[in-house]
Batch of 2 targets.
Target 1
Amino acid sequence: MTLRSRTVAIGLHAVVSLWTLFVLLPVFVMVISAFKSQAELFTRPLALPKQFSFAAFERAWGIGISGFLVNSILVTALSVFIIIFASSLAAYILARSERPVMRWVYVAIVAGFAVPLQSVMVPLYQLVSGAGLLNSRLAIALPYAAYGIPFTTMLFYTFFLEFPRELEEAARLDGCGRLEVFFRIVLPLSGPAIASGAIFQAVFNWNEFILALLMLTKSDVRTLPVGIYGLTGQYSADWPALMAGLAIATLPLIVIFLLAQRHFVRSLAGLGK
Amino acid sequence: MPHLEVRDVVKRYGTLTVLSGVSFAAEKGEFVVMVGPSGCGKSTLLRSIAGLEEISSGSVSIAGHDITAAEPSDRGVAMVFQNYALYPHMTVAQNMGFALKVARRPKAEIEAAVTRAAEILRITDHLGKYPKALSGGQKQRVAIGRAITRAPEVFLFDEPLSNLDAALRSQMRIELSRLHRELGATMLYVTHDQTEAMTMADRIIVMNGGNIEQIGSPLDLYNKPATRFVAGFIGSPRMNFIASRVMRLSGRSVGFSLGEGRPPLDLEFAPGETLPILGDAVTLGIRPEALGDDGEVHIADAEVTVVEALGRETLVYSDARTLRTTDSESLDGYFAQLVPSQSDKRLGQQIELKANRSAFVVFAADGATLHDASPIHHK
Ligand SMILES: Nc1ncnc2c1ncn2[C@@H]1O[C@H](COP(=O)(O)OP(=O)(O)O)[C@@H](O)[C@H]1O
Ligand SMILES: [Mg+2]
């Protein structure tokens, strides 16, 4: 390695390390605060707790985190399932069709990716309200799905362009119709694309706040981000319990992300073709 | 009635015509090999027969049924791909039984078919493995096994051996021939390798640029090539091609130029053969094994430039500067000579290139064969 490229490498590492610290520090503070008492949290905010107490977690659970957790899981699972199912099928047809019009359909879908949420919030609210879905889990699961489909379609599209055609042709000779080729051959071999699409959308939908705040006004249907936010006023005296609630909301995703990051990085690296 | 019949098949991609009216037929149980250079449309023709490509016009029938518009799986064909195309998420047994499973055949029947195919191909020990645990040769066997379990009317092979190394390739050639005898099935086999064609085929179809140049048995093509293209494609090392001109004509005797200062080569044309016209540019062809130190005709003096000692035989390349070639694949004046023994020829040595009159082939300017050579028989 030349001196110059080594200097560049050291510089890059320094920047990335700083950035990582910047991102991880709040998470770290949140986790240690969850183990502290109220007094300790304010007197020694950055120190490790003197003793690890799970009392705050118990209190957090007691004030409704468990319900929010269930809602979050249901909403995330449903929306991610719809996204993966619809995007993979759409992308497959777009990637395999030779009809010129399909290029335009693809462009239209990708364009949907560029519509900011804020600009459609009011009509979206009216739509959901008109459908009588306000204060139900579908009220956010369906918009989440709609929002996740363009990006995930792009992801699958690039993946399918590289997918070996001979496998599909062999399957057609073996008697599979188009749908059977997709479900028996293509989809089972799309693990990397499914994994990264699912993780990406799960992270986004698990953390989504604005839509959930707008659509879910009743406490029993709220997801974790809005649910915990709703507790801040009521339980402002109990910061450790809030921190424990937030920790419960954050950790599942971090764990999943760590387990699957290999897939995630690999398939994002293939985007843009 | 032929078992497989292809009639006037045309395939166009936009303005590009890949197949321009291809017709041939194969009898039941025949092993037909289609050869031709890369890009001449072999795969396209095979895929058209399989139903993976829609043809622009023409028709295909198998076992008396017109299947031009049928679904790939309803045509009674099975295809073996160059890259094996095994399903990576299925075991060897599942790969081989997949077609029957899709057709919802009973489990026992699938198992029996898979076991039988595995025995024929000697891959019984690998049935539980996944494709990625197999070597290239084993994968190719599985791919063939997948075709066998379907018991198709016609097997289609698209360069199935080209990803294997040379030793394995010659072994698989023998096995495929054995398989063909055992199954008695109709097979259409595509390759760009003339050795595969010569060794395995009952009949060879030579393709060039979307057209069939000639159909015939391996030795027919070797001894009586219909065109200069076939003469150059079949046989290794290639036939030598010499640019020449018709110098004199008397009766059926034709004199061809052999370069400055050399007497013309007189050849006697047989009654059925088309005579050229005086002054015509033609090509003389001569096989490497027909060139030697003695013979009726002294073609040229030459200098040895390369000697390839293969043990049993020797390939001697020499440069005869007085002669031009009409072959775009070889250099002017370069001759290949196949000596059926070890040779003491050295680099730089001056030699005389000689051959018998009966060894010359004559091609017209458009490539059509005007005059055939007689095959050489060693006692
Ligand atoms: N899908 C396609 N679109 C356009 N041209 C094609 C397509 N498939 C093949 N071709 C062209 O058709 C010609 C013949 O191809 P192919 O049948 O694969 O040749 P071979 O198998 O003899 O090497 C080539 O020139 C190739 O570029
Ligand atoms: Mg090919």
Target 2
Amino acid sequence: MKSLRNHFSLILALFAVLLSIQVFNIIERTIAAYEKNLQDNYSIVIVSKTALDLKFLKRSDTIIADITEISPAKVLEKVKKDFKQKNLDQIRSSLPKFYTMKLTKYPSSFELSDLERSLRKISSITKIEDFSKSHDSVHKLLTLFKSVISFLGFIIVAVTALLILKEMRLWQFQHQERMNIMALFGAPIWLRSAVLFRLAIVDAILASILVLVTFFIIDKNGTIETELDLLNINITLFNYVNDFFFLLGVSLATSIILATFIVLGHKEEV
Amino acid sequence: MDKVIVAKDLTLAYNEDEVIIKEASFSVDSGSFVFITGASGSGKSTLLKSLYGALDSKSGSLIVGGVELDKISSKKLDFLRRHIGIVFQDYKLVKEWTIEKNVMLPLIISGYAKDVSGMQVQKLLSHVKLNHQAGKYPLELSGGEQQRVAMARALAHNPILILADEPTGNLDDYSSQVIWNLLEGANNQLKTTIVVVTHHIPESLTIKYKHYHIEYGVVYEVS
Ligand SMILES: Nc1ncnc2c1ncn2[C@@H]1O[C@H](COP(=O)(O)OP(=O)(O)OP(=O)(O)O)[C@@H](O)[C@H]1O
Ligand SMILES: [Mg+2]
């Protein structure tokens, strides 16, 4: 009965670690999806006296993904009837070129000012509109969110790691006597610690399965996904193959490392 | 004759200021029967501990089964211990295992097949008159019964050396006789070397034996 309770608390501690890792994963995914949304809708408008070459621009800053010329045809169409064709040609040739510029990622404010500086070096560019005011507030909020979450995640992992270590020390105490007796009859170290490792592995697997079941229930319930949908964010909360095996790996590694510590820390009593 | 144990100027201590065994020199012939006596606290269990490599010597040398214990690697020590059967003064049974599994321990460690070790365990438990208790746990047994389980375990793997620390300490005359008969039998039939710590050397014994006594840290032979 006592050993069952021990089992249970180790599983619970591992479960807490795995759950916080997965929650962290989900938040990373949400932020990434949100940044992607922003990036898709984000572009810079630049005005240049002469035509711009994408290859040349890319050399000045690698964050630049693409530029598209905004055709002046529509503007000209409107004023067509007021001008003669000859004058129209003249206007067309003297008109500066407008471009929208797409970036490879959603830029930080530093990256944005860097980009602006390199663009200003190009003499033909006369105007840059980067919408930096609205950009900044959204992005700052995101980064703040991210750091708060990282901090919380760190605390959760630290606390549960201490919890697991304490649990394992209890285990060590519990298994010490048997391991000691086995050693006195010449059992090699792997045989002495076999029970410990078996328990560690079983508990790690059970904890991972518990996380899987938890997310299955969350998925079935669907409220979180609906809320994310409202923000126009489509992410998988839990990938039943990749995420499961990743968490299983983390869980196994954690418990096996801790069990190894116990085995190595074991000293024969005199 | 081959020697299973050779001690030369062996000094044992748990800490610097208190020597338990002082420069003891003795040897145990292969296939012989040896008794160790001495007052309580004289260092009998301490001497046995050094013989199964659980206590390093402070000085001098100790050779068991042909290996110098001072320099032994943990792997070699494991190997050596697989050929020794120990009856501890405090029994050292595994609480969470049944009597049957406890007796089976040396056989599990040596990698015997399940059916072979199962039969061996049944035989030994009936020798110590405990076959009806096989499924019980150590704490469900009396002290004397636990002691007999420890005896059965020490014999299970037919060791070449048995170290027994007061194996009849908790037993009535009848059960004590059962233990002495078992040890004598192993010594007679399997040529097992036997070292027994005891307060009373049984009078019933028919075989020749050596007798060491410990007093004030000195180990000497009584003839
Ligand atoms: N683990 C230990 N650490 C420190 N001192 C110990 C330890 N074990 C025993 N001693 C001391 O060593 C001395 C000898 O103890 P030992 O157990 O060898 O006596 P013994 O002859 O077996 O006595 P008994 O007949 O009562 O079993 C005692 O004074 C005891 O206090
Ligand atoms: Mg003793």
